[in-house]
Amino acid sequence: MAVEGLVAVSSFSAPRESLGVLDAETAAALVEGMADIAVVLDDQGVVRDISFGSDELRADFSADWIGQPWASRIAPESQANLEALLNEARQQTMTRWRQINHPTTRGTDIPIQYRALRLRDQGPIVVIGRNLQGMAALQQQLIDAQQALERDYWRFRQVETRYRLLFRMVSEAILIIDAPTQRVVEANPAAGQLLGESPSRVIGRPFPEGFDTEGMHAINGLLAGVRAAGRADDVRANQLDSMQEFLVSASLLRQENASFLLVRLAPILSAPSTSTLPETKARYLRVFENAPDCLVITDPEGRILTANSTFLSLAEIPTEQQARGESLDRWLGRPGVDLNVLMANLRQHTTVRLFATTLRGEYGSTTEVEISAAAVRNGERPYFGFFIRDVGRRLNTEQPTTPEQTRWLDQLTDRVGRVPLKELVRESTDTIERLCIEVALKLTGDNRASAAELLGLSRQSLYVKIDRYGIVADQPSDPPGPDKKDRS
């Protein structure tokens, strides 16, 4: 038998021959045996008879169902499902399964899945139910397990966050090395500073690297011993460039099927009498730290490697640790412009003198400064030294007027009334534009590419304006090349 709109039900091919004629008692026993709860309803939905499949289920329900409307024993949220079940039973021989909740004497609801069967036209409706308490318990266990997994996940995330924060803030240099390949997997900022690189550049590189031959042999022996026995004695190694001596220790860390080496680098501070630095260089370092002008050393990308206390005071930074690894552009007056101009001139001329700009502090203060800089070659990676001088106190609040500006203003006022205002404005705009280009060329040492960036123009636009105003550079500039869209 297939009922339209319902799940197909396969019927007996010859029920009379196979089952014969069942009497009422046999049919009742069959229904009672196959159902957890069976209810017989009249056409009005009143309970005429009821059967429970277990004593536990009987104890959960009140005994006064017979003679009462079945709807009075249904939870309010299941009334719609009950109406749909009875309406379908009046129209079809057999209904689909629907879930109905019943309140119990214990104050809880029991979910029952029902299917209804009308015996004959205008006859009683037999409703067969399956107890879903076991499935509901399994669903609740699944929900509890999911919530436990969610809590464990967020607990793990919090532990990982604390680990990351501790890993970044610890003052000791720590590296996590992949044991089979001896390549750096993670490095904290302190390790990057000691090795003269940012942590992101250290990751993926082989370890040890940058130490002298004896030190590399010692570190390799240390790592081999830790891999074999789980521990080994600390070793000493000298860095190749600075000859700084480190105490290197390592321990084995296992995670699932992978093995890692936790390596700690601790710089060994020599006593003043046995210092590896010559006395002359030691004096230079003391002067560097106590200089009244700001002294900053950066890598080729402009990230700060070290800075003296004067710069920290002017930039309103509490400690040098907070400045290391940051771009110097963060504190210069024109972000994205000043540092690019300085870097371009340093790469081309190796020195820059008296570059005027401003220095912005962390708390909003602004200081007029002059910057001189020099590029120091150190193999393939040069270092840039910036000498920043506070000139705010020696600058007047108003710049003095030059004789050329005075003549231009006098000529402008004399022509008022004789020349239309529109023409005066056009000529004034040209004069101001020419003066701005001359100032930009002066600030950048006649470097036209840097001057164009300073003015917000493309190179081609700047070249056209220079030719138009007949501006003559003091020294040859860079050749023109392809450029981006004009930003003027």
TrEMBL record:
Pfam families: HTH_8, PAS, PAS_4, PAS_8
Top-level taxon of the source organism: Bacteria
PROSITE patterns noted in UniProt: PAS (PS50112)
Domain PAS: 159-205
InterPro entries: Biofilm_reg_signaling, Homeodomain-like_sf, HTH_Fis, PAS, PAS-like_dom_sf, PAS_4, PAS_fold, Tscrpt_reg_PpsR-CrtJ
Entry-linked SMART domains: PAS
Protein name from the UniProt record: Transcriptional regulator PpsR
Organism in which the protein naturally occurs: Thiorhodococcus fuscus
Gene (name only): ppsR
